[in-house]
From TrEMBL:
Annotated positions binding substrate: 8-13, 72, 154-157, 177, 182-183
GO biological process: nucleotide metabolic process; purine nucleoside triphosphate catabolic process
Active site (record annotation): 71 (proton acceptor)
Catalytic activity from the UniProt record: XTP + H2O = XMP + diphosphate + H(+); dITP + H2O = dIMP + diphosphate + H(+); ITP + H2O = IMP + diphosphate + H(+)
Organism, scientific name: Halobacillus salinus
Residues engaged in binding Mg(2+): 42, 71
Protein name, per record: dITP/XTP pyrophosphatase
Amino acid sequence: MNELVIATKNEGKVREFREMFSKYGIEVKSLLEFDEPIEDIEETGTTFTENATIKAEAISKQYNIPVLADDSGLEVDALEGAPGVYSARYAGLEKNDQKNLDKVLENMKDVPTDQRTARFVCAVAVARPDHDTFVKIGTCEGHIAEEPQGEHGFGYDPVFIPQGSQRTLAEYTSEEKNAISHRHNAIIQLEEWLKNA
Ligand SMILES: O=c1[nH]c(=O)c2ncn([C@@H]3O[C@H](COP(=O)(O)OP(=O)(O)OP(=O)(O)O)[C@@H](O)[C@H]3O)c2[nH]1
Ligand SMILES: [Mg+2]
């Protein structure tokens, strides 16, 4: 396989998939690079697994090709798992990373350091014509910073400090993030399939 379609319109995800799949010699094509505009796929599931499956199967069926999709988000223990599957839409449907992150910090303002534990979760689904869809899940444990730091990455990266680190993920280089991220931890479980695909 030398090209894989990823059913996403999130440029941050596309960049990371492109970086991580390059070592397998696989080029990534996202929904942003199709000749015709692709309608938004409604994420009606209540779990990362369901939503990743919905996105992968929608595009796989429409174009009759193998497709990978990623549904991911941030689970904060002190917020009972929120924003969770609603991470992209936490502060509203407009999908504003800054507003989402501000809302997490605001909701966490009275939470002491030792209770700020959180994790990123990523479900990757692979849908193919005439095959059952399969899903792999990766996580990345850490805690929520008191204030945003760093310019790299996307989404909640400026407020997420991976376990054992003093820096936020937005202060990591892309190579450093791609070595420990939830997305990386999901993709490494695809290695067998990638080698044979
Ligand atoms: O700081 C972050 N670093 C990450 O590595 C990361 N991965 C996911 N997220 C957050 O979770 C939402 C996913 O929602 P999501 O899976 O529905 O994606 P999306 O709507 O942005 O794009 P699409 O793939 O659905 O087209 C994203 O928007 C982000 O807010 C991340 N934040
Ligand atoms: Mg989405």
